[in-house]
Input
Amino acid sequence: MKNTGTDKFLSVLFYILCACFAIACLYPFLLVVASSLTDEVALMKDGYRLFPQHVSFAAYKAIFSSSTIPDAYLVTIFVTVVGTALSLLVTSMAAYALSGRRLYYAGGIAMFFYFTMLFSGGMVSNYILVTRYLHLSNTIWVYILPALLSPWNMFLMRNFFNDIPKELFESVKIEGAGEFRILRSIVLPLSLPALATIGLFYALGYWSSWMPAMLYIDDTKLFSLQYIIMQIIRNVDMAQSIAVQGAQSTATLAPAYTVRLATAVVTVGPIIFLYPFLQRYFVGGLKVGAIKG
Output
């Protein structure tokens, strides 16, 4: 079937609209990067510009001057990678058990998961559980184990498992495969789009985690990157407020505004590169064509 002139015009129009939308999404991030490289005084005087006239790395020097930044990066990378892998394993196993009527009283058990989405025990009960009973204080596992399973992600995974044709499971069971073999060899390979999506949710959650460091960690070597960045911002804001009260000139002020922008680049930048590796799994389900006839 040949493309008519109208089809070509619509295709070009759609490409232009997609390009404009991509530029609109990318422009704010580029503006943040450019502004983080701007001198503090020039930023306050001239405002935000995509091409800074006075380039300065003072904000990044203020961030990376802390000796704990390398350790914080390693801690955050470990928590993100290991936590995401363990969360996907636990979530997929729980979702598989509650899908397809494999488990007796699956509806009642699912209600317990759903109940935790509506009500929480609160910060005090969580603190007592983590410190007195789980003994996770000052350990790297305090970032991972309390956030190991998200009921929302588990229900998403369960719904995806329910969409897999039942005939596929029946044919595999006839061959003598057990439940773990079915999950490992059939369900998970067909669920790569769901695993990629939920894995991205878990990775973003672990990468952005800072509350456990504030509540349960005293060892500076176990601080997460987000918590270190938050401390740096507080110190810079405090130094600037003291300088303002002392009536110092704007040239000697601490780079408070550019530090905030630089922290956005430092913390958000690395996780952005995760998306291109998962993009091909978001397009469609790989289970199409799994059953013939």
